[in-house]
Amino acid sequence: MTAAAPVSITMVKKRLANGEPCEKCAQTEDMLRRRGVWEQIDEVVWAIEGDDASSGVELGRVHGVEVAPFFVLRFEDGSEEVYTSGMRLLRDHLSQPRADTSASAKPAGKAPDAGLVSNLASQWQTLEPGEIVRLALERFGERCAVVLTGAEDVVLVDMAVKSGAPFRVLFVDTGRHHAETYALIDDVTRHYGIEIKSVLPASDELRKLLEEKGQNSFLRDGHRECCAIRRSRPLARALDGFDAWIGHQRVGRELESPGSEAVVEVETGQAPESRGLVRVNPLVGWDNNALWSYVRKHGVPHNELHDRGFRFIGCEPCTRPIRPDQSDREGLWWWETPPASDESSEPLGEGI
Predict the structure, then answer these.
(1) Contact in structure between 315 and 176 (CB atoms under 8 Å)
(2) Is 234 helix (H, G, I), strand (E, B) or coil?
(3) Quick one: pLDDT at residue 103?
(4) Is the pLDDT of residue 102 over 50?
């Protein structure tokens, strides 16, 4: 972050051949207006599609920028700085209106009691997911993170961007994801112009597991120990200092605890760091049809493994594609499922 305040800020927007601004430009302007900081943008310069001589295109050439929107900040010493992320500009340089400090607002750093969580769950239960995301970010502010634990969570990132509220994104990098998952994270970063912080396992815990049990101990001992070290505990540590997080169903939760999801709940995970955190799941009422309808309608980046039959996408050794007639369990931790019994045999003692 530059310590000095900019003398002026220029926003470069792209104008399409039909005269309309590009969708990302319109979304960014709307976000700045909703945050009450639009007046701090001193001028708007247009990069006109098909017109290489337009002012915006020329500024892009000067600064080596090929995407829109972007911002050029000028400082008293004559230096300039370029931002391609409206969210980052908002965080670093734009003065926002004072946050709500009323009694209804949640004091930073204090976990809400069960009564508040119950009230929020009741109030938000019937709202659309995008509205839930907006309300969560407004209530908990920057002490609320959007967590990428599965490919479906990108929908929540899209909703967070559209909310106009500042937010942070965490990606749980277990170290054993599919190559396509890492490609998706890169796509999401560039598509929305946001920063995504990777959350990694503790090196000492992981080294101890590998030295004592090898790379694939989960095939013998079950997935829980490996998942705790690579996924659950790193996320809990990363969320230390946050009050809430927004995420879709964690990989396998719907298999192990079906029907346990709520729009808002208090985290009760085994890791001490995560206990008491508020977990918001705006998509709890959506089925796959609703989810993928949103992805297609809004052009949300998605993991291409879904196109190859993957229902779950977690670590590479633990997830595989399944046919429509197969159960979800056959696509995740399938080696832990006892083989089905022979239904043609009659149990002893029956029919006698």
Answers:
(1) yes
(2) helix
(3) 35
(4) no
Token pair of 110, please? 């204090």
Alpha helices of 214-318 — where are they, by DSSP H? 218-221, 224-227, 233-238, 253-256, 288-298
Residue 89 belongs to some domain of the structure: yes
pLDDT at 296: 92
Q: How many domains does the chain have?
A: 2
CB 74 within 8 A of CB 80: yes
- Decide the pairing of beta strands 196-199 and 144-148: unpaired
Domain co-membership, 128 together with 48: no
Query: Quick one: 299 and 151 in the same domain?
Result: yes
76 shares its domain with 134: no
Same domain, 62 and 146: no
Place of tokens 């007639």: 325
Token output for 218: 């989960």
For residue 50, give Cα distances in angstroms to 54, 55, 243, 331.
9, 12, 47, 47
Query: In 3D, which of 319, 131, 146 has the Cα closest to residue 239?
Result: 146
SS3 at position 189: helix
* Average pLDDT, integer, range 90-99: 69
Rounded to whole angstroms, the Cα distance separating 274 from 243 reads 9
Q: Is residue 255 part of a domain?
A: yes
Give the mean pLDDT of 263-278: 66
- State the Cα–Cα distance between residues 10 and 13, nearest whole angstrom: 10
Tell me the average pLDDT of the chain: 82
Coil, helix or strand for 4?
A: coil
CATH number at residue 266: 3.40.50.620
Token pair 């500042």 is found at: 166
What's the domain range around 76? Answer: 8-93
Asked whether residue 105 carries a pLDDT value surpassing 50, the answer given is no
**Are 148 and 84 in the same domain?**
no
Dump strand ranges (E) for the chain. Answer: 8-15, 43-48, 70-74, 80-83, 144-148, 168-172, 196-199, 244-246, 264-266, 278-280
Question: How far, in Å, CA of 346 to CA of 202, rounded?
Answer: 51
Choose between 225 and 268: higher pLDDT.
225
| Residues 199 and 235: beta-carbon distance below 8 Å | yes
Judge if 192 and 44 occupy the same domain.
Answer: no
